[in-house]
Amino acid sequence: AQSVTQLDSQVPVFEEAPVELRCNYSSSVSVYLFWYVQYPNQGLQLLLKYLSGSTLVKGINGFEAEFNKSQTSFHLRKPSVHISDTAEYFCAVSDRGGGFKTIFGAGTRLFVKA
Amino acid sequence: GAVVSQHPSWVICKSGTSVKIECRSLDFQATTMFWYRQFPKQSLMLMATSNEGSKATYEQGVEKDKFLINHASLTLSTLTVTSAHPEDSSFYICSARRPEGEGGWYEQYFGPGTRLTVT
């Protein structure tokens, strides 16, 4: 069974400051890792994904994440945030077999202040 | 791109009635679709996985007879909430996946969600 833990429920940060949203996972099988963003009353939009290869993955809107297998982490970072980055961010893990079930973390609310 | 639509975007129904939510993949064929439920300020909870032409696989704790899922074609899955009650009020989101082996098959494409309010 898989699980995903997002360590921070809310992250307030000032505009143009860097931010890191933390995600840890556990799984008994190999997984794919994802970060999604959700704006109010909308579906989810994929920010980035880790499938294999380089552990540093870059996504849209200037976000990047690093896969750390030994620490089972997949933290999301952005060097300089904008007001428009205010949203809910979800870390997710999908098993590589067995139906590709995806489990989501509880979410982190990023609030960018002017 | 890969676009997934949901209809309706919001619906209000009376307690005891049934409501159907449609999920369509507009520009690709989706052999697998997923249905999620999201409570306010909470994460997405997987309700069921549906594969075209076969019965849906429900997650533990999800009532099969209450949440009827039909995946009749490669582009359409429906979720019917039967005999709805106020506690069924929630945001329902579907996602779709391309057939395994196709480009981008590992990615889920999400619909915009349906807000259900049961009065």
Notes on the structure:
Chain A has 114 residues and is mainly beta. Chain A has no helices and twelve strands. Chain A has strands at 3-6, 10-14, 19-21, 23-26, 31-38, 44-50, 56-58, 64-68, 73-78, 87-95, 102-104, 108-113. Chain A starts with a strand and ends with a strand. Chain B is 0% helix and 51% strand. Chain B has strands at residues 4-7, 10-13, 19-25, 32-38, 44-51, 57-58, 67-73, 76-81, 90-97, 108-110, 114-118. In chain B, strand 7 and strand 8 form a beta hairpin. Chain B is globular, with a radius of gyration of 14 Å. The interface between A and B is medium-sized, with 22 and 23 residues.
Mean pLDDT of chain B: 91
List the quaternary state of the chains: heterodimer
The backbone outline of chain A, from C-alpha atoms, is globular
Q: Low-confidence spans of chain A: pLDDT under 50, at least 5 residues?
A: none
Structural category of chain B is: mainly beta
First and last CA, distance of chain B: 37 Å
Biggest interface, which chains? A-B, 22 and 23 residues
Shape of chain B: globular
Low-pLDDT segments, ≥5 res of chain B: none
Helical percent range of chain A? under 10%
What's the total count of β strands of chain B? 11
Give the beta-strand count of chain A.
12
**What is the number of helical segments of chain A per DSSP (H or I, 4+ residues)?**
0
State the order of secondary-structure elements of chain B, H for helix, E for strand. EEEEEEEEEEE
Question: Keywords, please?
Answer:
heterodimer; A: 114 residues; mainly beta; 6-stranded mixed sheet; 4-stranded antiparallel sheet; B: 119 residues; 7-stranded mixed sheet; 0% helix; 51% strand
Chart the SSEs and their pairings.
The complex is a heterodimer of chains A (114) and B (119).
Chain A: E1 3-6, E2 10-14, E3 19-21, E4 23-26, E5 31-38, E6 44-50, E7 56-58, E8 64-68, E9 73-78, E10 87-95, E11 102-104, E12 108-113
Parallel strand pairs in A: 2-12
Antiparallel strand pairs in A: 1-4, 3-9, 5-6, 5-10, 7-8, 8-9, 10-11, 10-12
Chain B: E1 4-7, E2 10-13, E3 19-25, E4 32-38, E5 44-51, E6 57-58, E7 67-73, E8 76-81, E9 90-97, E10 108-110, E11 114-118
Parallel strand pairs in B: 2-11
Antiparallel strand pairs in B: 1-3, 3-8, 4-5, 4-9, 5-6, 7-8, 9-10, 9-11
